[in-house]
UniProtKB/TrEMBL annotation:
Region forming the signal peptide: none
Molecular function GO terms recorded: lipid transporter activity
The protein, known as: PPUP8445
InterPro entries: Lipid_transp_b-sht_shell (IPR015819), Vitellinogen_open_b-sht (IPR015255)
Organism superkingdom: Eukaryota
Matching Gene3D superfamilies: Lipovitellin-phosvitin complex, chain A, domain 4
Domain Vitellinogen open beta-sheet: 25-185
Protein species of origin: Poeciliopsis prolifica
Gene from which the chain derives: PPUP8445
Length: 185
């Protein structure tokens, strides 16, 4: 019984040691997973735990570079464009003329950041800058029929745009006085 207790204790200690000193687990101990995303029966993407770990590692490196640029006072522009859904279906009908259905959804996210830091010590520093996020989501749907005499369709389009802006400053003087200034449109 003592041997099992010691082996359990050693297991806990080795896990704590690995957490404190950053030692990675062996490949056999790492969790394995696979995620699949399907919409309308079509597989959009597949990723594994290894893909997620690689993205986290790349993200931490890019965040470090982003922090260095902001501390130097440079403007940083981040953007991401994605097609959330692009699907076309052809459905049979009782009349014999197939019904076409199409759905498209796109998004655009953009972020402008700029800031400067004046740091003397922990009791006296200031932070100035601005944040300007932009977002766009577009959804279009089309339903119609194609026949020998011609085409007939109904099309629907919806868009959502947002572009707020926030700039301001935060100052701490002599560890006692705090000033926060926010300029909003």
């Amino acid at each position: 019984e003592k041997e099992t207790c010691l082996s359990d204790t050693n297991g806990y200690l080795s896990q704590a040691r690995a957490a404190l000193f950053g030692r990675r687990k062996a490949d056999g101990e790492m969790p394995r997973c696979r995620v699949s995303v399907k919409i309308f029966g079509n597989e959009l993407s597949v990723f594994t735990c290894d893909d997620v770990r690689d993205q986290i590692h790349q993200g931490s490196l890019s965040l470090a570079g982003l922090a260095v640029k902001l501390l130097k006072g440079h403007e940083v522009h981040l953007s991401h464009r994605g097609v959330l859904m692009a699907e076309e279906l052809r459905l049979p009908s009782l009349s014999g003329v197939p019904i076409n259905l199409g759905v498209n959804m796109t998004s655009l996210l953009s972020l402008h950041l700029k800031g400067s830091v004046n740091y003397r010590d922990t009791s006296h520093f200031s932070l100035n800058g601005y944040v300007r996020p932009n977002a766009y989501v577009g959804l279009s749907a089309r339903m119609g029929v194609d026949g020998a005499p011609g085409q007939a369709a109904v099309e629907w389009l919806a868009e959502l745009r947002s572009s707020p802006s926030l700039d301001g400053s935060f100052q701490l003087q002599e560890g006692r006085e705090v000033r926060v200034t926010l300029n909003t449109p």
